[in-house]
Amino acid sequence: MRGMIMSTESQTFTEKFDLLGCIQCGRCTGGCPVTVRTNLNVRRFVYDAYSEEKLEELAKLAEIWDCTACHTCAVRCPKGLKPLEVLIGLRSMLVDSGKVQSTVRNALESVYLEGNPWEKPKATRYDWMEGLDVKLAKPDTPVENLFFVCCTIAYDPRLQVVAKNMVRLLNKAGADYGFMAEGESCCGSEIHTLGEELLFEEIVGENTAFLNDFQARRVITLSPHCFATYKARYPHLNKPVLHYTQLLAELLQQGNLSWGHDLQKKVVFHDPCYLGKQSGVYDEPRRLLKSIKGVELVEFDRSRERSLCCEGGGGKMWVESESKKERLAETRIKDAHNLGAQIVAVACPFCVLTLEDAMKALGYEEEMRVAEMTELLAELA
């Protein structure tokens, strides 16, 4: 915090989000992907949040839920600020008042009670392991790579293939790894962006203590959302964190992974916001795709730090936009179709869901495929 701590809520809000550092250049709003389909104006929210009297009014506006926390505004800000955090702060005010959508309330309660936002029983988190030759980590046994499985991957039948294929790839590579068979719980990524800060702080404390107990050299996440959250919001985690694409690229470089089949397809990689803009991982997924014989790797015009958000992050899985305009995921799939891409490769569970839904809505199933990276690689190994 800058300067002396003030007593009024407005000044505390201003200091917390460094609103006085904003020069109102408008680059945040100019780059915000959802402005093409919603009334969200990030710059205006930052400006209006200067006033204590307006905070309660601002927190009631539907636009605060249109933000996907993609971090484009943070990437573009010349002052190094994170305007999106202002919107999350306003969400927190609303959550504290209890006046949120039932879907948001249910997700928050589910994390508190069951350790996941999908209202699934805690005891079924590891059902995806059934029938697999999976190595399990124990706190008192050293392991090179400790895997953390995202809630969405653990429970969604469409996405459990990510964890299953990761096990197959790791076994093929002879990697030293371990998955957790108890105690794993939500990383809190979406809880933070939905605005439940007290619950998020509790999650961070519990997960930090849990993960620090393991004698692992590093933690490997399957989801970019977990990856970005552990890296940026777990200051006392005693292990470095990698995304699985970084580990697979490492195993490939070491000669421990190879592909037994060619893939004569035109492939485009979609940069997930939490992997790219938030965490700076761009090259490893492309390195993996380029290593496949026969693949013609093409690029979106909006790629890497300019990648178009799919609208799956920022709690949007639990908050439906009031806008009826074309979803960004549909725009993304149309862009891929115009490139002649036969496969849209992704490395994020939320991107799989949004882009696959968009592909089906557009009627492109016969021409294209949305494939999670582990899904694609395991088929070729």
What do these coordinates show?
By secondary structure, this protein is an alpha/beta fold. It has three domains: 9-97, no CATH class; 103-251, Rossmann fold, CATH 3.40.50; 259-380, Rossmann fold (3-Layer(aba) Sandwich). The protein has helices at 9-16, 27-31, 42-48, 55-59, 72-76, 84-97, 102-114, 151-155, 160-173, 189-194, 197-212, 224-233, 244-253, 283-290, 328-339, 349-362, 373-380; strands spanning 143-148, 177-179, 216-221, 241-243, 266-269, 296-298, 343-346, 369-372. Helix 13 crosses helix 14. The longest helix is centred in the middle third of the chain and has 16 residues, at 197-212. The radius of gyration is 21 Å and the shape is globular. Mean pLDDT is 94; it is low at 1-10.
Summing up helix and strand content along with how strands pair, one would put the structural category as alpha/beta
The biggest beta sheet is recorded as: 4 strands, parallel
Along the chain, the helix and strand elements come as: HHHHHHHEHHEHHEHEHEHEHEHEH
Number of DSSP strand runs: 8
CATH fold assignment of the largest domain: Rossmann fold
Helical stretch count? 17
Shape descriptor: globular
Distance between the termini: 51 Å
Whole-number radius of gyration?
21 Å
Q: Give the DSSP E fraction (strand runs of 2 or more residues).
A: 5-15%
The pLDDT mean sits at 94
Q: Which segments are poorly predicted (pLDDT under 50) over 5 or more consecutive residues?
A: 1-10
CATH architecture of the largest domain: 3-Layer(aba) Sandwich
Our count of domains comes out at 3
The CATH class name of the largest domain reads: Alpha Beta
Which strand order spans the largest sheet, edge to edge or round the barrel?
2-1-3-4
> Percent of residues in helical segments?
40-55%
